[in-house]
Amino acid sequence: xxxxxxxxxxxxxxxxxxxxxSVYFIAAVGSLGGLLFGYDTGVISGxxxxxxxxxxxxxxxxxxxxxxxLAGAIIGSLIAGWLNDTLxxxxxxxxxxxxxxxxxxxxxxxxxxxxxxxxxxxxGLGIGAAASVVPVYISEIAPPQQRGRLVTFYQLxxxxxxxxxxxxxxxxxxxxxxxxxxxxxxxxxxxxxxxxMLLCPETPRWLGSKGRWDEARAVIERIKGGQEQELADIxxxxxxxxxxxxxxxxxxxxxxxxxxxxxxxxxxxxxxxINTVIYYAPTIFERAGAASASSAILSTSVVGIINMLxxxxxxxxxxxxxxxxxxxxxxxxxxxxxxxxGIIFAHNGGHIAGLTLATLIVYIIAFALSFGPxxxxxxxxxxxxxxxxxxxxxxxxxxxxANLLVSITFLxxxxxxxxxxxxxxxxxxGVLAFLFSLxxxxxxxGKSLEYIERYWENRPLRTS
Length: 464
Ligand code: BGC
What we know:
Blueprint: H1 2-12, H2 23-54, H3 59-87, H4 89-108, H5 113-141, H6 144-174, H7 180-184, H8 186-199, H9 204-209, H10 213-222, H11 228-240, H12 256-271, H13 274-287, H14 293-317, H15 323-346, H16 353-369, H17 371-381, H18 385-417, H19 419-440, H20 449-458
Helix pairs in contact: 2-3, 2-5, 2-6, 2-8, 3-4, 3-5, 3-18, 4-5, 4-8, 5-6, 5-17, 5-18, 6-14, 6-17, 12-17, 12-18, 12-19, 13-14, 13-16, 14-16, 15-16, 15-19, 16-17, 17-18, 18-19
The structure holds beta-D-glucopyranose.
């Protein structure tokens, strides 16, 4: 196609098109939003030790300091749909990059707790919005056969961000510099996102939805591997749906299918208890009899690295095996690991930290191969173009709200029910997640976004 285009331009004397862009470059830039998500949620764990002294934090204010970013993310995910549709994917990401930069720098100079909390809510706004916008941006740019892999880059970036935040915390703590540079460092990622997005295009689907077809065509031509056919597909699917009811349309019966899938996957991704592991792993290892705090932290970093490596495996598998086998296998394996974890705690007799680590590794591998990447991927590919941003935003909102609920109830649940029953409760959600995926989640591997749209029209819910 590139060759034909060159010939056409030669014949018509048209100006040469700008340099072709690789979808991998675009996905990598977009994924910086995921890196910020991982970094900004993970950084608090190490920073907390220093914040405690600076702001004389109590148990309650510590919980508030941890959750502030989640509260911001809930709000951010809600406004993301509107921003994404009004400004477009590209301008929204540029705006979010500015929020990340300003938020990071202001957090680092916080003179008191209230100022700090406000800054964390602002950073949270950016994270929550980016979590809905980036998957949509990448999914609308990617060719169908690579979409799974490319959107999973985003989840990889989240896991890298979590691991990096842990090492950065360790480095600044070791250098005696305390919490300010831990937060300020995120500004570097914000600048990279801003500069990278300046080089990236708007998506052809958003341009098409605004009637800017010439620009949509130019973007498709510029992206390596882009196909002429794509423009016709986008055109057809947008013109078939004249009446745009906006967000309200999401709640009408013909879109019930994707809404249930998006919201259901969002809830299950959190209710299997992933963030009790991500945020509280050192506590879990201590309770399991880790020899010292530092061996508990070391075990945590192992979990972080396994999370990253398994997400790389997911990138290789998601477009080959498909989404459903990963969801089905992953949910069962997570449920099994959680049952074993409960048993380990029921027989809390001493040298079991090694066994706990092994079980948590199985759990994290299962999560990173399934619900970790597949939720974000499907939330960005199952909704029709005209409601994609709003649908992804509602799914993301549900995910952040569920995240907050699990994170703030974990320690209380352990107090009230005991560690064993708490893990078994999450195991039950693992089984429900399996049944949900089996009955309701369609396979989207290799299908164009327009094909998926038609699927829901003919079959509002998967029934077999
Ligand atoms: C989840 C986060 C989680 C992370 C762990 C993401 O997909 O949304 O809540 O902390 O995975 O890797």
